[in-house]
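Annotators were shown the component list below and the corresponding predicted structure, then asked to write short factual statements about the assembly.
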Amino acid sequence: QKEVEQNSGPLSVPEGAIASLNCTYSDRGSQSFFWYRQYSGKSPELIMSIYSNGDKEDGRFTAQLNKASQYVSLLIRDSQPSDSATYLCAVGKDTGRRALTFGSGTRLQVQP
Amino acid sequence: NAGVMQNPRHLVRRRGQEARLRCSPVKGHSHVYWYRQLPEEGLKFMVYLQKENIIDESGMPKERFSAEFPKEGPSILRIQQVVRGDSAAYFCASSPTEGSPLHFGNGTRLTVT
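Structure shown to annotators:
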């Protein structure tokens, strides 16, 4: 079982729709959760961080965390073609490996 | 404020040569991380360093790979006797404290011919 799992996609949504990206993790000791966006050939850039159960909203982005289900998601409202990228879920722990563990990413395509 | 600076951006090496990748973290950041990314794949953790100390190298191959983060100067990822399978994008990231979000550099794309 991978430590952090994401559906590789591509996830295709029409412009203006809500894109829902999902991530599950295996270690119950995980404490910090991040979503990064990576355009093709570029470096990852941080979009959202979330540390406690519930929702966290920032503009068109909402991160949702459910530690009991070991599940974190990212919603993108009013999707734009410029949102087309690979979205990486990253998980951090307090013990053991203390660097972030990344999922393999979900490729999002927003159709104009 | 300068972000994480990596150089070179592109590096071509022949099999058997050495590759040296450099990373200067964000000013004030003392935690440096190296990740490797193959095409169409996620980021694979290699090594986590603080100034002069390797904290976690569990993701780094035991042979041919080494990393350092000296008291002065950039962090260096060294790959000796490169093979074609080492071709990848190598990303460096830094953070001010452990557990805080990572700031990534633009990466070094290594091609082994």
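Statements collected:
1. The mean pLDDT of chain A is 93.
2. Chain A touches chain B through 24 residues (CB under 8 Å).
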